[in-house]
Design a protein that fits this description.
By secondary structure, the protein is of the alpha+beta class. 25% of the residues lie in helices and 27% in strands. The chain contains 5 helices and 8 strands. The chain has an 8-stranded mixed beta sheet with strand order 6-7-5-4-3-2-1-8, sandwiched between helices.
Length: 191
């Protein structure tokens, strides 16, 4: 698989749920949700069919550092104009580096390019880091922020997307350029 690395060694990989590199993301998310909420959450992660996170209506994205997944996330169609972010993840050994914010921004860009005009998402009441991330990224809480999150359940957020910028002239230097990937349904590009 071809990848274009930046000095920090970060590359984006657009992929599918079946990609073995996705397994660490799903396992760690399942373990973390199970610990925070006191019940096995691994089944919840398989609730949606894999096709929902694939083009043309969805996307699953990994951020790799030197070929190893360090962050990721996905979106799926919520309605005709709205994408729903799901499974935003940063590997526990790589937190506090701004990687989740980069994942959210890239997913927002890809959703806008696909024609979505809004993002919807929910996070759990025992995930204050996620709540802080979405507020810092400009999401509007669709719940009473003064209420105890445990009394609300899943915390919904929304955000209106700007129309995507026009594609740059064909100079071969676009920062959003996808580089080839040999695995079906996957592609990598610099982060």
């Amino acid at each position: 698989m071809t990848s274009v690395a930046r000095p920090r060694g970060l590359t984006w990989r657009r992929t599918t749920v079946a990609d073995p590199l996705v397994r660490p993301m799903l396992e760690e998310l399942g373990n973390e949700y199970s610990t925070r909420y006191g019940k096995d959450a691994h089944g919840e992660l398989a609730r949606y069919p894999a096709e929902e996170f694939a083009p043309p209506h969805g996307e699953l994205l990994l951020l790799l550092e030197h070929g190893v997944p360090v962050a990721g996330g996905a979106f799926r169609r919520y309605d005709e104009h709205t994408a729903e972010l799901k499974r935003i993840w940063t590997h526990s050994a790589h937190r506090r580096r701004g990687l989740a914010r980069r994942v959210v921004a890239e997913l927002e860009h890809l959703a806008a390019v696909r024609g979505y005009r809004r993002i919807h998402l929910t996070t759990g009441p025992r995930q204050p880091e996620a709540r802080g991330l979405y507020l810092a990224a400009g999401y509007t809480p669709l719940f009473d922020t003064t209420a105890d999150p445990e009394t609300i359940g899943p915390l919904p957020f929304g955000k209106r997307l700007a129309a995507p910028a026009p594609a740059p002239a064909a100079t071969g230097r676009s920062s959003r350029r996808t580089t080839g990937g040999s695995a079906p349904g996957s592609a990598e590009r610099e982060g």
